[in-house]
Amino acid sequence: MVNNILDTVKVKKPLIHHITNMVTINDCANVTLAVGGLPVMAHAIEEVEEMVSNSQALVLNIGTLTLEQVKAMIKAGKKANSLNIPVIFDPVGAGATKIRTDASKKILDEVQISVIKGNKAEIGILTGSGGKIRGVEAESNDENIESYKNFAKEYHCIVAASGVTDIVSDGNTVYKVDNGHSMLGTISGTGCMLTSIIANFCAVESNHLQATVSAMVAFGLAGELAASRSEVKGPASFKEAFFDEIYNLTDEKLSRGIKVRGEVN
Amino acid sequence: MVNNILDTVKVKKPLIHHITNMVTINDCANVTLAVGGLPVMAHAIEEVEEMVSNSQALVLNIGTLTLEQVKAMIKAGKKANSLNIPVIFDPVGAGATKIRTDASKKILDEVQISVIKGNKAEIGILTGSGGKIRGVEAESNDENIESYKNFAKEYHCIVAASGVTDIVSDGNTVYKVDNGHSMLGTISGTGCMLTSIIANFCAVESNHLQATVSAMVAFGLAGELAASRSEVKGPASFKEAFFDEIYNLTDEKLSRGIKVRGEVN
Amino acid sequence: MVNNILDTVKVKKPLIHHITNMVTINDCANVTLAVGGLPVMAHAIEEVEEMVSNSQALVLNIGTLTLEQVKAMIKAGKKANSLNIPVIFDPVGAGATKIRTDASKKILDEVQISVIKGNKAEIGILTGSGGKIRGVEAESNDENIESYKNFAKEYHCIVAASGVTDIVSDGNTVYKVDNGHSMLGTISGTGCMLTSIIANFCAVESNHLQATVSAMVAFGLAGELAASRSEVKGPASFKEAFFDEIYNLTDEKLSRGIKVRGEVN
């Protein structure tokens, strides 16, 4: 895990350009602020190149995609590539409809992604190992680490598959992250928020494998800490506690709370 | 009221496809999760047929409509009809502008709606009994049960008019639901959230009259329970408590808290 | 400051038509309800004239602008002008991209704005005194009161520049508002919410200079009151407390808590 990652985000305050869905756009802005970065949401095709040029990471999230929006994503992604700005891709609902799967493949083909983060159905469908999705939720936690590794090698990116145990790989090393809590499944947008945190961490740390693992630990640990609070009585009080815990995370808490199994293959 | 409706939703986890407004889209996703269903929000015209085909109910909500979005609603609605998937329609702001009234009529004409749910101004305007709307809020609680019944018969749907007392009718039977709390009027999106809960209940219960009444009881009762909590000090703490109470509702609480007057005519 | 402004809003319940961004649209709706007004969000170009005609103020906020949306803003703004309905403009991200700067100038040229409210970078960039913006956040709190005054005179509007100390001027009188709290910077959308409160106040008070100062006091004071609460442990619990404090504000609290320095030049 990356040392002092949270301190670094808080000091550098990376600007994270999101082209994202309208369901969780407010949560992604707030989680970016809570973790120490600055969010900006901009999707007009006429401005995405200029906006991303001043940013330190780009989030592409297809949760409520339109074909027009995908064009803006690709334009922004190519610009980010030309400036060595990391691109974090969240293929929300890939496999649920043809245009989501096609858009995901098109983005992966035309933009050099730094990290692809999805649930195990989305990642399974895109990596070719299969998976079942209902709407935007994985039906089960099946994973296929070999196909993740092959995909990571082919696309020169980090593959991050979230689930009860998260899997992260760069094609060689594989990490399993056990941080997390079942209450995270009771609120909308946790996957999107995790993607935003990954973007904040990759914006300040060039080792994207380590940055992604660290982000997943931070996200899961905040969920654990929130769930343990006495005032949490359901999903909404949990969500409030979760944001507060993200804000109050420290690198010291991270190193105490980390639950990661590394397997170098 | 439907027995074991909440248990059934939690077991079946219906997928509820929403084509909805951008103001309350996050609330509708979260209330669907809280009540036990799975939300998916998708509005691109290229994917709505495919998405609704895998869903158990479709919500059409015109709160921030565009003409393009209405086309997607009708396309999705017709597909839902062909697959016997219930369509729940919320004509937000009907009467406030011509395009909202026209869109509502077009949807009613082209799609077989299972339930139309609006405030008493929206429902009054569409059923022809009249009503005054300011923006998206009813100016008064005037109701016209005969016109609701005629409309329900003509369109073969359930008419649900929300207000201090909610009125629900299939054209023959009329129910009056007295559950609810004035604090619900202090937050945005309660009407939209109620529509989502109706969709969750109709997704698992083919008696849509009973499902709609049950949803209105559940919604209103959660409001009552939330308002009675000592930590509620205003609309935001009320909203948090409301979501938590929706999550913690049980069929036993529903049958204890129900305030429904039935009138079979 | 305006006497009884909160009471007046609560009694008159002004309808505030927003054409705004998708990040904070829900917050703007809720803050309008909390302060006593009625929100309506409508952006379809076919309905904005009709919607604004029944409103008491119009908010134009370019936080996630598209060129199409800017057209709707100008159409609505011109209609508002013809009916003497105040237009409150929030040039979110002006200076960050060319289309945001251009759209801001176009709106200022084609619509008679009552109040322009931005952070000190946005206002500095548009008034010509300069400023540095990162995404949608000002990089520093530099201010140039002379350029604000000149701009207010040229455009016959109130200029409101928010920061640690807010500056408000009509071109002659200058007010400095010291209410506020650093926790407001930890959540997304506070600038947008402040704009909505200004709109609510201008909707019921024709002295827009006084209405704007009063709104900034109300906004900042609610932040101070929220931050002092023992249950606030981070940005999310602060946000909840903030909304509750807005709802619970009274004119008496305002006159006790006001921190304004007036300088008539």
Can you describe this structure in just a few lines?
The structure is a homotrimer of 265-residue chains. Chain A has 265 residues and is α/β, with parallel strands linked by helices.
Observed structural traits:
11 helices, homotrimer, nine-stranded mixed beta sheet, 11 strands, two-stranded antiparallel ribbon, globular, 265 residues, UDP-N-acetylmuramoyl-L-alanine:D-glutamate ligase, alpha/beta
Can you characterise this structure?
The structure is a homotrimer of 265-residue chains. With 265 residues, chain A is of the alpha/beta class. Chain A has a single domain (5-264), classed as Ribokinase (UDP-N-acetylmuramoyl-L-alanine:D-glutamate ligase). Helices cover 49% and strands 17% of the residues of chain A. Chain A has helices at 5-12, 25-35, 48-53, 67-82, 98-110, 120-127, 145-155, 190-204, 208-227, 235-248, 251-257, and strands at 15-19, 38-41, 57-61, 87-90, 115-119, 133-134, 137-138, 158-162, 166-169, 173-177, 260-264. The first copy, chain A, has a nine-stranded mixed beta sheet, sandwiched between helices. The radius of gyration of chain A is 17 Å and the shape is globular. The two termini of chain A are 18 Å apart. Chains A and B meet through helix 5 and helix 10 of A and helix 2, strand 2 and helix 10 of B.
Quaternary status of these chains?
homotrimer
Q: Helix-strand pattern of chain A, N to C? A: HEHEHEHEHEHEEHEEEHHHHE
Q: Work out the helix count of chain A.
A: 11
Q: How large, in whole angstroms, is the Cα Rg of chain A?
A: 17 Å
DSSP E strands of chain A, number: 11
Helix coverage percent of chain A: 40-55%
Please list the strands of the largest sheet of chain A in the order they lie side by side. 2-1-3-4-5-8-9-10-11
Give the DSSP E fraction of chain A (strand runs of 2 or more residues): 15-25%
Q: Class by helix and strand content of chain A?
A: alpha/beta
At the first level of CATH, what is the class of chain A?
Alpha Beta
Q: Report the biggest beta sheet of chain A as strand number plus sense, adding barrel if it closes.
A: 9 strands, mixed
Q: Largest inter-chain interface?
A: A-B, 32 and 34 residues
GO molecular function, one term (chains A, B, C): hydroxyethylthiazole kinase activity
Pfam families (chains A, B, C): HK
Organism (chains A, B, C): Petrotoga mexicana DSM 14811
Pathway (chains A, B, C): Cofactor biosynthesis; thiamine diphosphate biosynthesis; 4-methyl-5-(2-phosphoethyl)-thiazole from 5-(2-hydroxyethyl)-4-methylthiazole: step 1/1
